Amino acid sequence: MTESFLPATPTRPAVVVRRSKKRHRTLSARQDGDHVLVMVPWGMDPDGERRKVEKLVTTLLNRRRRYTATTDEELMERADRLARSYLDPVVGSRVRPSSVRWVTNQNHRWGSCTVRTGQIRLSARMAGFPRWVSDYVLLHELCHLVEPNHGSRFHELLSRYPQADKAEGFLTGWSWATSMGGTDGGVGTDAMDPAPADID
């Protein structure tokens, strides 16, 4: 395995390009602290590698920018909508968090809820995930405001979300793929094909 380093520019953070003999066709990129880590196949044509790395980094950064456009205020509005739709009618009272924020320090869970303060935090690793997946995680944390543990009442509340099974499957699949070295938690493309301009 070899690495090269591309210094930061005014429009992007530093990039570490890691070449691996285990990779045969695919490239992937993910934010790794203050730099972007790009995994590429060993022995790739240097000109092709440079073009694909730049395109993949641009795609990743554009996706991150779209994600950061969701402000904390918008997250609170989503929490309000989800609670009104799935919790308030069953609980018989208004379920609202004191705050909802994106955080970058949750690398082992998708979200957290501090019941005592009503604060909900969502992992920034969900950047670029479909809205129905992040809504599921947000609703999961909202359910903790009603039921702090994962008992039967908690699961009964969460199961009211129509896409709960689908979202759980998405998160499980993403976690498995990441643990196997598939997605690296970022974006990827096939080294033999041009990178898509917009990955959703």
From TrEMBL:
Q: Which InterPro entries match?
A: UTP_pyrophosphatase-like, YgjP-like_metallopeptidase
Q: Which domain of life does the UniProt lineage start with?
A: Bacteria
Ranges that cross the membrane: none
Classification via Pfam families? YgjP-like (PF01863)
Domain YgjP-like metallopeptidase, chain residue ranges per copy:
94-161
Name the PANTHER family for this protein. UNCHARACTERIZED PROTEIN YGJP (PTHR30399), UTP PYROPHOSPHATASE (PTHR30399:SF1)
Put simply, this protein is called: Protein of uncharacterized function DUF45
Q: What is the lineage of its organism?
A: Bacteria, Bacillati, Actinomycetota, Actinomycetes, Propionibacteriales
